[in-house]
């Protein structure tokens, strides 16, 4: 048992010109202070205290001295020309050493800091120091320091040594035995003279008063409990759980593929004249297959002559010499058609009231496929150039935290932050493994479909088989890479989560949402979808706006005005492009583009209110614009601090709106949902609902001060290792995976339907 001594002094004098000086000399150090003790606050405000109490640095007993013997000299002096009364009291601390799993209550103030000793038990390698208080203020600081004298226990020097956190109602620090060679440390508690560091305000009674002294009574009741942290075996269990849990998805995928292979083999045995397309549906090659729905009930049906005319026009353009490898630059058609080809002009075809997939899949399939593969190669390049500086930056953040000991830099859930090596919260990083593993699994699934599709083309001239949705896998590959990169960048963000690097966690979320919308649109508009260059340029603009929002989006009204205008104008421009099926080039004239948008509203909504020319598109665009304008107004009025999440909300709402519209129109067109996409839709809804529940269990918030954020910290809920946010990582990875499968399998029922029977919406 280590003994400690506490010295209490009091003086009634408030004369700052002649303070009373106290010097305490010990065996290994000297401690000094003055009364009145002066603390400086914000804007050079000063606070003085007449009562001061300090704990002297304890000395270990030696063979030459008895355990209870300590020699201490206390010198008292003042330069005052008059007598000053003071009181000096030296007491022995009975409860200086803290015990494991035993709560200890005490009181501290700015002039009366406290610190205590803790020694690691033999079987404990790591402990968590939990500190709680019923009152948020006054603001306090909790510090863990090595056994070195003097102990830094005042507001102006507590940050000089060890690890420290600011605190309102709760603080937690994880301490490992390996960091303290002596297997013991001091836990120091300091009360700050002002509360602004914890999110509070300066007391109203001293606003506007500079260089005055105030004898404020700022005491705080605290309770400290030191509990053992998890053992190394829990780390191993958590790693096995993370990897085996997601490897089960691989096993499930193998089982589904095997069952599909067996069922396909049986159908091939029963029907020798059939061929599998892209590993999904079956179609007979010897006889044409009619539409899956009666022609009279199909969506937007027109007479057979019109459909056959569309097929005849598309055949010469889609046929290409065998083995030709045309560069993607030849994919664009001339804007000037000769008279004999006027009937095949894309602008004339796209003005039809009822469009079919054969009208929008007229380009050479191989050229279009190359165009979409650019998405895959570009996103790999973007990922490398984006991730490398991010990794370097977060390593720097973690190094600064480890060197300075300032745990206010990173917003962890300190009640469930398990360190490993140099990482302060390994559990938050490990939980992102699901994104990487499921992203890679999705790439394998897409690769399998791609290979099966290529084999089908080798078995039969696919260009004569105008059935099903055109198979272009470039966007799917890009989505798989984006999911993997989301895991990498989310892990980077959680190395040191804070306000400055939150955009790392959201950048590829924007790209995932954008790629999903592009893929959904590409499904029935393969010839007019955006190119990879324009799509990624748009994502770059969005990420640039997100960075500007982090810098200027807190309180600057001008930024929100400009952003809202850009948002509304972009919505109108995109609506014009979608409504006209890409027949109007944005680059031709921006003024003309918006004039044309107004003309659309006039002709289709005012002159023909009863029935716009493209009713379904008009309904989608009206609802979409109302949603986006609502977001713009909300941002302009409330100006949310979390600008990155605000933009992500815009992307997600637009994606959900378009997906709902697509499924509704698919069912309205009497198309079917096969068991696998139906299962994926249900799984997506269920897993997203569970994931969002855990997402909204806020465990920290960089929108507040670090001390206020720690009030939201909560213990682990899974295996004693993962917290609510880690569970969100697991479930969101699974939800994104199922969402991708929905897009991949949604139109498998159309593999046996002619393209001139598949409506476009």
From TrEMBL:
Residues 286-338 are annotated as: Disordered. One of its GO terms (cellular component) is plasma membrane. It is found in: Membrane. Residues 328-338 have a biased composition (Acidic residues). GO terms for molecular function: double-stranded RNA binding; RNA transmembrane transporter activity. It is a multi-pass membrane protein. The chain crosses the membrane at residues 238-262, 375-395, 429-447, 475-496, 502-521, 533-552, 558-580, 618-637, 643-664, 676-696, 727-746. Keywords: Glycoprotein, Membrane, Signal, Transmembrane, Transmembrane helix. Residues 286-296 have a biased composition (Polar residues). Residues 305-315 have a biased composition (Low complexity). Belongs to the SID1 family. This is SIDT1 protein. It comes from Brachypodius melanocephalos (black-headed bulbul). The lineage of its organism: Eukaryota, Metazoa, Chordata, Craniata, Vertebrata. The gene is Sidt1.
């Amino acid at each position: 048992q280590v003994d400690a001594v506490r010295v209490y002094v009091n003086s009634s004098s408030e004369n700052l010109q002649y303070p009373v000086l106290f010097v305490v000399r010990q065996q290994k150090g000297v401690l000094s202070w003055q009364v009145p003790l002066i603390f400086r606050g914000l804007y050079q405000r000063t606070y003085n205290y007449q009562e001061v109490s300090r704990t002297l640095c304890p000395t270990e007993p030696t063979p030459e001295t008895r355990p209870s013997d300590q020699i201490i000299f206390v010198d008292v002096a003042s330069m005052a020309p008059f007598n000053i009364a003071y009181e000096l009291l030296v007491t022995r601390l009975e409860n200086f050493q803290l015990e494991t799993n035993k709560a200890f209550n005490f009181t501290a103030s700015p002039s009366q800091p406290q610190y205590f000793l803790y020694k690691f038990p033999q079987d404990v390698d790591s402990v968590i120091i939990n500190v709680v208080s019923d009152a948020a203020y006054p603001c306090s600081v909790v510090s863990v320091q090595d056994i070195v004298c003097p102990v830094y226990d005042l507001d102006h020097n507590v940050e000089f040594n060890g690890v420290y956190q600011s605190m309102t109602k709760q603080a937690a620090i994880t301490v490992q035995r390996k960091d303290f060679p002596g297997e013991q440390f001091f836990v120091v508690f300091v009360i700050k003279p002002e509360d602004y560091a914890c999110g509070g305000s300066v007391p109203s009674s001293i606003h506007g008063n500079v260089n005055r002294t105030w004898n404020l009574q700022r005491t705080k009741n605290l309770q400290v409990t030191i509990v053992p942290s998890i053992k190394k075996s829990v780390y191993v269990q958590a790693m096995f759980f993370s990897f085996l849990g997601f490897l089960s998805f691989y096993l499930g995928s193998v089982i589904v593929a095997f069952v599909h292979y067996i069922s396909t083999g049986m159908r091939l045995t029963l029907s020798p004249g059939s061929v599998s397309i892209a590993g999904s549906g079956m179609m007979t090659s010897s006889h044409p297959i009619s539409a899956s729905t009666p022609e009279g009930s199909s969506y937007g049906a027109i007479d057979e002559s019109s459909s056959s005319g569309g097929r005849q026009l598309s055949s010469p353009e889609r046929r290409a010499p065998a083995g030709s490898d045309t560069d993607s630059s030849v994919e664009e058609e001339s804007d000037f058609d000769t008279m004999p080809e006027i009937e095949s002009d894309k602008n004339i075809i796209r003005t039809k009231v009822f469009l079919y997939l054969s009208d929008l899949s007229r380009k050479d399939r191989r050229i279009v496929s190359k165009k979409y593969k650019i998405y895959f190669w570009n996103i790999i390049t973007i990922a490398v150039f984006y991730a490398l500086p991010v990794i370097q930056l977060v390593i720097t953040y973690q190094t600064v935290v480890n060197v300075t000991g300032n745990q206010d830099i990173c917003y962890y859930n300190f009640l469930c932050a398990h360190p490993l090596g140099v990482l302060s919260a390994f559990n938050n990083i490990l939980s992102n493994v699901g994104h990487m593993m499921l992203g890679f699994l999705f790439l394998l699934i897409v690769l399998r479909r791609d290979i099966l599709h290529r084999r089908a083309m080798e078995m039969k001239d696919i260009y004569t088989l105008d059935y099903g949705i055109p198979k272009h896998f470039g966007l799917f590959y890009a989505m798989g890479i984006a999911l993997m990169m989301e895991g990498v960048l989310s892990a980077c963000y959680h190395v040191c989560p804070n306000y400055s690097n939150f955009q790392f966690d959201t950048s590829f979320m924007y790209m995932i949402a954008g790629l999903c919308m592009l893929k959904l649109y590409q499904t029935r508009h393969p010839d007019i979808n955006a190119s990879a260059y324009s799509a990624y340029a748009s994502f770059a603009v969005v990420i640039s706006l997100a960075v500007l929002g982090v810098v200027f989006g807190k309180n600057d009204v001008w930024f929100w005005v400009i952003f809202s205008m850009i948002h509304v104008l972009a919505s109108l421009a995109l609506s014009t492009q979608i409504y006209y099926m890409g027949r109007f080039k944005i680059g031709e004239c921006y003024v003309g583009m918006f004039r044309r948008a107004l003309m659309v509203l006039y002709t289709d909504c005012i002159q023909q209110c009863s029935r716009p020319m493209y009713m379904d598109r008009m309904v989608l665009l009206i609802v979409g614009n109302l949603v986006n304008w609502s977001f713009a107004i909300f941002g302009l009025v409330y100006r949310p601090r979390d600008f990155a999440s605000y933009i992500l909300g815009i992307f997600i709402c637009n994606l959900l709106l378009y997906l709902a519209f697509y499924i509704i129109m698919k069912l309205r067109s009497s198309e079917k949902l096969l068991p696998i996409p139906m299962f994926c839709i249900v799984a997506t809804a269920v897993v997203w609902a569970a994931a969002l529940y855990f997402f909204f269990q806020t465990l920290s918030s960089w929108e507040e001060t670090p001390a206020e954020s720690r009030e939201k910290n909560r213990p682990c809920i899974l295996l004693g290792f993962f917290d609510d946010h880690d569970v969100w990582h697991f479930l969101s990875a699974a939800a994104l995976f199922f969402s991708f499968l929905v897009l991949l399998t949604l139109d498998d029922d159309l593999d046996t339907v002619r393209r001139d029977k598949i409506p476009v919406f």
